[in-house]
Request: fold
Amino acid sequence: MANIFSERIDALRAMMDRNGWDAVVVSGSDPHSSEYPAPRWQQVNFLSGFTGEAGDLVITRDHAGLWTDSRYFIQALTQLEGTGVELHKTRIPGAVSIPEWLSDKAKTVAIDGLCWNVDAVKEIADALGEGGLTVDVPDMLEELWESRPQIPMTPITTLDTDTFGGTPRAEKISWLRKWMLLEGVDRVLLTSLDEIAWMLNVRGNDIEYNPLVISYLLVSQDSVRWFVRKGMTDDPDTLDSFAELEMDDVVIDDYDAVFFGLSDFTEEQSPVKLFVDPSTLNHHLYSYIQDSYPAERIVCGTSPVILQKSVKTSSEIENLRQTHVDDGVAMECFLHWLETEVASGREVDEWEASEKLTWFRSQIPGYRGNSFENISAYGPGAALPHYSTPKEGSAVIRPFGLYLVDSGGQYLTGTTDITRTIPMGECTALEREDYTLVLKGMIDLSMAVFPRGTAGCQIDSIARMPLWKKMRNFGHGTGHGVGYYLCVHEGPQSIRYQYNPQPLLPGMVTSNEPALYREGMHGVRHENIILCREAGMSEFGDWLDFETLTCCHFDTSAVVPELLGPEALDWLNEYNDWVYRTLSPHLPTETASWLREKTMPI
Reply:
């Protein structure tokens, strides 16, 4: 019996027949290559029911496939059941990419060019080869999607850098203009939402958990034009923000006026050279640019903003240190509450625990919401790296085994991301072993010292070695960049085994989160946020290391000391003692006493 998702795919196939398309590829992103799209662009979810943040669909006349990575394999198999959509695994040995898969199965491929970036479309077109055709159909699903959500338009606020850290927008614009002069370009079009938010020091809530504003930014030597959803608004924050931006000579234009803005120059002017980043620029807008600019006047490259915003300023770093202390207070209050409630015999399920953690965070001044959906998972649920905690029917947390909580907050003074795996009572020998090996990998990476110029892919194995020695592993990366009251995931740096040449630089903030997952049994992940910093010089060059920013204890009750080793054990004892000394003055007396016991050396 067909379900709603297979019916929607059948309707899309009927559209394919009418237009002579061999295949349709549906992006899991939006017109700005966002990791988390607003509801309007959650097209993969609409067609398949898959709710993961990373996944693309391919529909042909006889096949429907979802391409996603190991974080979502188990989730995808469950959610795709009965839809007729098959799982295609990515980021594993022998994986076949969408372009490669299409190469011998289609000649005419339709895309929604608003939601595919230039680089991705080029890969598909190259794979189709001579005689292949990609057809750009903006908002392709509009006729099939009844009551499709509109483009969001939430209140906009500006950040006072004197209070909340960072660099004034005028200085950022001046820096970008100097870069333009050096690169010989006249205009820069920014399309990635976090880059725009960073450049203008603006924040919004157009995308859940990400304080972003859906918009484009066009910068030249004599103008800055922000193309943003304005509408008729009487929101005082937005009106004040627009007024402040205009005082800094930022022209506010309507979102859809970006097409006119890109061609707004006279024939008498010398040809304008425009810089774009094809990894975030959507293909539909790029096609318009190609019609407006001679090919030699379009410069494609990596946006300089990505690297610039990844290196935090001294004021941002100081604020982040305090933000992680505040976040640690919320975490310790939650962990104390959870242990007390479960030990009392009261049934606490995963959803209630998640809501309680959010409540504790909401009590912190400067809190602006969570940085992603809480992952609150007990037992087998924790074996799904991106487990979605159900509101109804979530598992009860028992006084034994492992409970995993991955969460974070958005604050005016930074973004946090922390995972703790909590022994709720007696654990099996295997649970204790897995718990300790993952913790050792996290600690070993925390203690790493490396020469300047080292990339994250060159030190990823440090976190995996304790697991590898026992022939265990995890499929996702070890670390991602973290924004400053921005996206919880940002580049260009990463710590993962896939090649990424970007060196780690002093001032970069990155997660440190090795893990291990046993399907149907349990999952373990330990995560701290670490700051890359100067470590000193020697006759062998400049050296870097990490400062741990996250301030929340690790439970030692499940640790197997001989697996941890003396150096890692010393680090753990010193870290837990630092957590107690730092947080105890800010905790309720009962919670502080509980934390003293939890942080006693082993």
The chain is about 35% helix and 20% strand.
